[in-house]
Amino acid sequence: MSEVFSQHITLQDLLEQGLNIALDVVNAENGSVLLADPDNRSLVFYHSIGQQPVPSGTVLPWDEGIAGTVFRTGIPEIVPDAQTDQRHFKKVDETTGAITHDMITIPLKRWEGDPIGVIQVMNKRGGKFLDRDDMAILTIISSLAAVAIEHTRLVEAAKLAEVARLMGNITHDIKNLLMPIVCGAGILQTEINEMLDRMPEIETQRAHASRKLCNEVIQMLKDDAHRIHDRVGEIADAVKELSTPLDFSACEMAGVVSSVFRSLGILAQEKQVRLRTENLELLPLIVADQRRLYSAFYNLINNAIPEVSAGGSVTVCGQLPTSEGAIVVSVVDTGGGMPPDVRDRLFTKRAISTKPGGTGLGMKIVKDIVDAHGGTIWVESELGVGTKIHIRLPQVPGESARS
User: Fold this and answer.
1) What own/partner pairs with CB < 8 Å and gap ≥ 24 does 79-88 have?
2) What is the pLDDT at residue 392?
3) Confidence of residue 197 (pLDDT cuts 50, 70, 90)
4) Which residue segment(s) compose the domain that 170 sits in?
């Protein structure tokens, strides 16, 4: 156990190896590690082993069930027959198709501190039942595991702190690098206008068209230069778990999406993917931070385009206000869809990128923006069918969002 837990591995790998050892030592069929999510007062299945493992990301309230009892009290429990215990969540058995018989639940405790989760081991092999000897062994394993989990989290936090420091430096450098681009675009715009003004009268019509095109391209360069700077700042905030105050104003969703389409139009053309909208023009004005909403939809659409085959589409759809005074905007793609484990943790703290070089920060930024507006976000996705990401936004954010 000490050898495994002293390795420099990810938290997920650590939990998997620790749980495997626990099952081997007590000769049990199934087991799970649940870690606490203080924000939602819940226990989350981070890893599960067995013929029918519990899906990663399954959530249980931490004030219910056998796991909740052990987590709150910090006292391990042996349950000879879970089926007769009223606290047992039978929905978990229904989800996995397994039947839980005997069970031991052990708290994962900080050193002289509060529990951070629980380990559950079920169904001893060989016609025997889990007993106090097994509980004693599992208590030792859980103590080592808790220390290793805390150590791993501290290491990860230290890495994030260093990344945040570097991101601050990078943001400053990028701002300096972008200034010549912004200034150069302005000089170029002045030079083009002067040149076109001096063209012969016969070329006036052509000059007018050229000037309009050049001005549009130059404005796009300026806008995107500012957005690159904002984007780096948002990444830095996401790493540091910070959120800058929102700048609320009347916002037209169709205009936000139109700006995103302009920025991503070339990428979509190269991939032969159609960018479409439905019913956005019917949506009423909402009170929101237009710049931040642009960032959220840019992330979603930019992620969707590479997943769509040539000839497919990414569509942004609007739904009229509900009785709660909220609009729903959905990003729908015809891509390959997501596997259930990726889908279920997409907008959680355990979200990871499956793309080469991806960080997973893009989806965190989206979730942070939606939360800051007092909205909600959820995903529907099926392999081979495509993905729908829905965002519900209040027409007027509450006081908590404004602050």
Assistant:
1) 79/103, 79/104, 79/105, 80/129, 82/122
2) 93
3) confident
4) 158-239
Q: For 40-81, write each residue's pLDDT tens digit.
A: 888 988 888 887 788 777 888 888 889 999 999 989 999 998
- Cα atoms found within 13 Å of the Cα of residue 232, Cβ hemisphere only: 20
Distance (Å, rounded) from C-alpha 194 to C-alpha 188? Answer: 10
Q: How far apart are CA 399 and CA 253, in angstroms?
A: 21
| Residues 104 and 228 reside in one and the same domain | no
Strand partners, 32: 48, 120
Tokens of 85: 């215990």
Do 171 and 107 belong together in one domain?
A: no
Domain end, chosen from 210, 239, 268, is at 239
Element (H, E) at 285: none
User: Do residues 6 and 145 both lie within one domain?
Assistant: yes
Q: Which residue, chain included where needed, has tokens 């497919």?
A: 312
Shared domain for 190 and 257, answered yes or no, is no
Measured torsion, CA atoms of residues 232, 235, 241, 246, in degrees rounded to the nearest 10: 60
**Do residue 216 and residue 110 come from a single domain?**
no
Q: pTM here?
A: 0.53
Q: What pLDDT sits at residue 236? A: 62
Report percent pLDDT > 70 for the chain: 77
The label of the residue with tokens 């097994």 reads 134
- Count the neighbouring beta carbons within 10 Å of the beta carbon of residue 301: 24
* Segments of 57-139 assigned E as strands: 59-61, 77-79, 103-109, 115-124
Instruction: Judge contact between 283 and 254, C-beta under 8 A.
Output: yes
C-alpha 245/C-alpha 289 separation (Å) is 10
Note whether 39 and 62 are within 8 A (CB): no
* 149 pLDDT more than 60: yes
Q: Is 163 left (phi over 0), alpha (psi -120 to 50) or beta?
A: alpha
Number of domains making up the chain: 3
State whether 186 and 80 are in the same domain.
no
Residues 6+ apart with CB under 8 A from 350: 44, 46, 56, 57
Judgement on whether residues 21 and 93 belong to the same structural domain of the protein: yes
Chain-centre distance of CA 298, in angstroms?
15
- Tokens (6 digits) for 126: 């060989």
Give a yes or no: residue 244 inside a domain: no
Assess whether 218 and 286 both reside in one domain: no
* Cβ-based neighbours of 339, under 8 Å, separated by 6 or more: 383
